[in-house]
Structures are given as structure tokens and as C-alpha cells.
Amino acid sequence: MTITAGTKLGRYEIRAKIGEGGMGEVYVAQDTKLDRKIALKVLPADLASNRDRMERFVREAKSAAALNHPHIAHIYEIGESEGVNFIAMEYIDGETLREKIHRDKTPLSKLLKYLMQVAEGLAKAHSAGIVHRDLKPDNIMITRDDYAKILDFGLAKLVEPQMPLIPATLVQVKLPLPSWLSIRSPAW
After folding, report:
1. Over 80: is that where the pLDDT of 178 sits?
2. Does domain 94-170 correspond to CATH entry 1.10.510.10?
3. Segments of the chain assigned E as strands
4. What pLDDT digit, counting tens, does each position of 9-65 carry?
5. ∠ at Cα 111 (109, 112), nearest 5°?
6. When comparing pLDDT for 2 and 15, which is higher?
């Protein structure tokens, strides 16, 4: 099935393609029942026949849907329409963290604010026994309201949730910064 503007997948009407990755294509769509804009991740038919890809697709939906946190994109539904498998999720109007870093040259203080929000979202996922395993600037959206949201739990791994041995508020850790985070401060 060719997906273009106007294509309907269940109750969702495609408006435009907004992205593409290893797990398929992402479209902005209109939820015709709830009258809201959503993002629709579509697994192409040729990939849906691959059992491993299909399992990963379902795992992403289940992993992210199990989480409710302001810094994790919300999953609304996993579905299939006319042989097309999809995940309906929160549409995030904004830019990727990669764009904020490289194109916008966002100051370090603001990038650290975003990374703290991401850390809060990851802490929620980890407390539920979910490890993201593909966290990168392209999988973090910054909303127009200036909040970070984690996307794409496609490589998520489910593990037994564990209680922290030491409360996080009592620990101060200095970590090396990821190579993709450009540092412009001479203090570093």
C-alpha cells in the first residue's frame, strides 16, 4: 500500500510524512475520532513479514505504552489496517536534540536542562524494568514549550526492576559527556 496524504489507516488520516528510520516511516496524521494530531509510525509491509522486525515493533509499542511520564512520548495504540501495522503516538511539535545541538548551537546550560529531563524519563523507564538501548539526540524531541521527550523504544529491553541501593539525591556523579555533545565552555 502506498501511503500519501489523505490515506486512511483505521481512524487515522495521513497528513504528511515527517520521518524515516530503521523501523519504518513516521507520519503526522489526524485522529478522526478524537480530532487531534498524532504521529503514526508505520512498519512497511516488506518488513512486517520479518518476524524479528515485527517483534521489535510490538515490543516498542508495549514498552513505551507501559510508561506514563512527562518526558516520554505517549503511545495511544498499536494497530493494523489493510495489512499495514502502525503505532499511534503523541505528536510532538518541536525539534530533535540533534538539531538543538548542531543547528541551533543551544547553550550548554539549556542542553543540560534537557538532559536532566531525559534522565528523569529514563529513571521512570528503568524503575519499570525498561532499558531504552538506543538513546541518541535523534530520539529526543524538544517541544515548542522547551521540554524534552524521549522517543523510539524500538530496541528496549525488559529487565527486572531493581530498587536503588543509594537514593539518587545522595549521590553526586561526574560522568564523561557523550561525544555528540559539543562543549564550548573553556571550564570543561
Report:
1. no
2. yes
3. 8-9, 12-21, 24-31, 36-43, 75-81, 84-90, 94-96, 130-131, 140-143, 148-150, 157-158
4. 999 999 999 988 767 899 999 999 999 999 998 987 777 788 887 887 777 677 778
5. 65
6. 15
CATH T-level topology, domain 8-90? Phosphorylase Kinase; domain 1 (3.30.200)
DSSP 133: S
List C-alpha distances in Å: 71 to 115, 141, 147, 148, 178: 10, 9, 7, 6, 20
Catalogue the active-site residues.
134
* 161 contacts 130 by C-beta, under 8 angstroms: no
CA distance 70 to 151: 12
pTM beyond 0.85: the answer is no
> With the CA atoms of 149, 155, 158 and 162 taken in that order, what torsion angle do they form, in degrees rounded to the nearest 10?
-60
Length of the chain: 188
